[in-house]
Every structure is written in structure tokens, then in C-alpha cells.
């Protein structure tokens, strides 16, 4: 089985890494995220998981950052049942089914038009969930969204594919459009960007789409966009789930954490983080 896919750009190709990561996680005896719909989507599309030979080593990060962003969205919705939720660079993620918002919430998955067209073929429809096909660098797409409701904006894996000017411009437009809300995304330390660029075997053509330099200080976005305030920085490696990692990885992890625990700035440079801001 499978569907006919258009040629993808390197940035679009990155959606397979995260989708396949969640699919593989769901096959573990004790999955971290348990997103079985991701595995169904991979089957429907007919994508070959073997295209990412080193995917197993990234499962924990991919699953845990998705899990944290789900939690952040769920928590915001519990406080604001009239919220709008935006998943920017949604790829083929079916987060709306994991978060399962009430009917009072409007959910918008935004990605390039060709990706949103594929979403419509492989992800079930859901009331109050809308696909917006747009380049996030365009200024028009935001105008179709209500501006007077609390907004929860999540972006999982998007940042590396926006230039620094594009990222700052997007964040500025989002925070100006909505009267208030929260923004959450996984941080990209400069080292992570360097690794993607220098290990093509692990990331394939995706490296060519990475145009953001990354940033190490979670307070930096506050300086880019007036009105943004960091409210949470979380580290998947410091969650109870990290205890399920194989012994070797845990030993290296605790050694690194131990060595770096006195220097949060250094720890950030080597660790996956999920950052949450209020505006
Ligand atoms: C690493 S993937 C993550 C996909 C999804 N969030 C997930 O976790 O599976 C990055 C996504 O950002 C999208 N993207 C990158 N640049 C974009 C842009 N300028 N406009 C719209 N989408 C973009 C890509 O098409 C891709 O789907």
C-alpha cells in the first residue's frame, strides 16, 4: 500500500524523521509516547523506516519532546477551554488526537500546502481541526485565524528550518496577532545544528534544509520579541521516563549530567530542551 508523494524539499523531508521516530516508539514494549496513529500513518503512506538507520538513538528525544509539548497544550486548554491551538510545521503529526481537546477549542495545523494535502489523505478528519497550507514566512495566512481568543502555539522540530530573520518575524507576527497566549517549542542548541550539518549519514538530505544557527540561551527569544517571557524550560533527560533508557545510555547520561549539573548553561548546549514562553 502507499500513496503517491510529490518531491519533498530537505525541510519537508524532516517530517519523516519525527513521524518515524514516534512510529518506532509506539512499537516498543514500553513506549514513551505510544502514538500508534503515527505507525498507522507511516503504513498508509508506505514510507520505509529503514531510510533512517540511526533513528533508534533518537527515539527518546523525539517521543519525549512530543509528549512534553502535548502536556503543555493540554494544560493550556484546561485553563482556557475557548483556546485556539496552532501546531506550526505540523508535518504528519496527529497531535490533536493525542491531546484530544474539547469541541470548544479550534485547532490549526500549519505546514506547506503540499504537506497539508497529504495530511488530508492519511490523517482522519476531526471536528474543529483545520489544516492551513502555507509557507510560515508568508504574512497572510495568520489573517484567517481569530485573534481574540487565548492562543497556544506549539512548534515541534520547526526552528532549524527558519532563517533567524524568518523566525523572529514569525514570532513577532504571532505575538502581535493574538491578544495573549503561550508559545512552546523544542530548543536548538548551536551544537545540535552543527551535528546535523556534519553527520549526513544520520540525517540525510535534511541537513541542507537547516538554515537557523540555533541558540543556547533560552532567554534569547525574550530579546528578539518584546513581550515574550520564558516561563518553563524542561529537559526530557530529567524526567522519570529517562529511567527506562538502556543502562549504557543512562550511565553516560548521568555522567554528563553530573559533570554539567553545576553549569546549566553548559548542560543546555548538549541537551534537548522544551521551552515555554508567555506573551
Ligand atoms: C522536523 S519536521 C516536524 C514535523 C512535525 N512537527 C513533527 O513533529 O512530526 C519540520 C516541519 O516543518 C515544516 N516547515 C519547515 N519550514 C516551514 C515553512 N517555512 N512553512 C511551513 N512549514 C514549514 C516542514 O514542512 C516539516 O513538516
Automatic annotation (TrEMBL):
Pfam family, one: LCM
The entry's keywords: Methyltransferase, Transferase
A GO molecular-function annotation: methyltransferase activity
Annotated GO biological process: methylation
The protein's name in its UniProt record: Class I SAM-dependent methyltransferase
Upper classification of the organism: Bacteria, Bacillati, Actinomycetota, Actinomycetes, Streptosporangiales
